[in-house]
Amino acid sequence: MAGYTKNQIEHFKEQLKLLMKSHNLTDRKLSKEIGYSMTTISSLLTGKRKVHEHHIKMICEYFEIGEAAIMGDADELADYKLYENGRYLCTGSLKKLSKITGKDKLLLKFYADLNKKGKDTGNLKLVKK
C-alpha cells in the first residue's frame, strides 16, 4: 500500500459512513465487531485519526470488500489542474472537472495521460497535481 491522497481519505470516510448506514451499524456496534475502540472508529470517520493499512484491512475484511471499493481509484480521485488555451481555470478531481467541462472523466484522464507524455490535446490541458 502506498500513501493515500487527501481525496482518498475523504472517499474512505464517506464510504465507511455509507457502509455503516447500509448495515445498520453505529460506531459502537462496528467497534465491537472489529475489535477497535469506539473512539478509534469515531476518529477515523471524522479524520481526527490517521487511516492506516491495518484499519483498512480490518474494515475491508469485515464488510467483505476490496481496498479499492473503500479507498477509491487514486488517479480518479487525484487533483488535476485544468488549463484552457494555456490559461489556468481551476483544480479538481476528474469527476469535478467532468462536470465543469461537460466531458467524460475517462476522456479527461486520457487527456491527462497524453499531456504527461508531452502530447497536445487541443485547447484543454490537464496536469496531475
What is shown here, in short?
With 129 residues, the chain is an alpha+beta fold. The protein is built from eight helices and three strands.
Helix content: 55-70%
What is the alpha-carbon Rg in Å?
18 Å
Question: What are the segments in which pLDDT stays under 50 over at least 5 consecutive residues?
Answer: none
Order of helices and strands: HHHHHHEEHHE
- The average pLDDT is 92
How large a portion of the residues is in β-strands, by DSSP E? 5-15%
Largest sheet: 3 strands, antiparallel
Q: What is the β-strand count?
A: 3
Category by helix and strand content: alpha+beta
Overview of this protein structure:
With 129 residues, this protein is of the alpha+beta class. The chain has 8 helices and 3 strands. It has helices spanning 6-22, 27-34, 38-46, 53-63, 67-71, 74-77, 94-101, 105-116; strands at 80-84, 87-92, 124-128. Helix 2 (27-34) packs across helix 3 (38-46) and helix 7 (94-101) crosses helix 8. The longest helix is centred in the N-terminal third of the chain and has 17 residues, at 6-22. The two termini are 20 Å apart. The model has no long low-confidence stretch (mean pLDDT 92).
